[in-house]
Amino acid sequence: DAGVTQSPTHLIKTRGQHVTLRCSPISGHKSVSWYQQVLGQGPQFIFQYYEKEERGRGNFPDRFSARQFPNYSSELNVNALLLGDSALYLCASSVRAVRSGGQETQYFGPGTRLLVL
Amino acid sequence: AQKITQTQPGMFVQEKEAVTLDCTYDTSDPSYGLFWYKQPSSGEMIFLIYQGSYDQQNATEGRYSLNFQKARKSANLVISASQLGDSAMYFCAMRGPSNDYKLSFGAGTTVTVRA
């Protein structure tokens, strides 16, 4: 089975520009989460969507927005890019997994590396 | 608020030996889940093992086992018989009660396996 896919893999933007990152979940997974991972740190939660509804939002400014489509794929949008937005953006889809005692478990994609100049 | 602490920034281990990665957490919720992920240089986070707060037994998954000490709020990962392919960043993460689905991650520990 295909894992979580993300596009693009790498992106270079300049300050003030806008960026759209895309994510396709594992088949059958209805929930998608987005995380930002700055170099040398652990991932920080940005958003989670379930069945096209926002289920959670992290401590990020309104420049960050997301949506989920009927096929459960998702987009993360960032407006007015700042240098500090340079990071690895990870998408995860989740399902209740046997390996986790039936608890919801997140499976991650390879990420999109965003560099803001 | 939930907090995960990983105090070891980097560790070296000889091939075929075991290594223990420390993780302590802080939460006031009685119901939570603890996860360990592996992140190779490629960037993808790979799910390794899960421990629920109400689980009576320590989780095991192949060469990975979790030393769960609830009273001390620690969930250390043990990798046995280390292989060169185990060289990666390892993250401990926690999910809160059933209505809080986000993962809170620690800062990670880099493991380097030497031949």
Quick overview:
The complex is a heterodimer of chains A (117) and B (115). By secondary structure, chain A is mostly beta strands.
Question: What would you note in describing this structure?
Answer:
The complex is a heterodimer of chains A (117) and B (115). With 117 residues, chain A is mainly beta. Chain A contains no helices and eleven strands. In chain A, strands 2, 4, 5, 6, 9, 10 and 11 form a seven-stranded mixed beta sheet that branches. Chain A has a four-stranded antiparallel beta sheet with strand order 1-3-8-7, with no helix packed on it. The model of chain A has no long low-confidence stretch (mean pLDDT 94). Chain B has 115 residues and is mainly β. Helix content of chain B is 0%, strand content 51%. Chain B has no helices and twelve strands. Chain B starts with a strand and ends with a strand. Chains A and B meet through β4, β5, β9 and β10 of A and β5, β6, β10 and β11 of B.
Labels describing this entry:
heterodimer; A: 117 residues; mainly beta; seven-stranded mixed sheet; four-stranded antiparallel sheet; B: 115 residues; six-stranded mixed sheet; 12 strands; globular
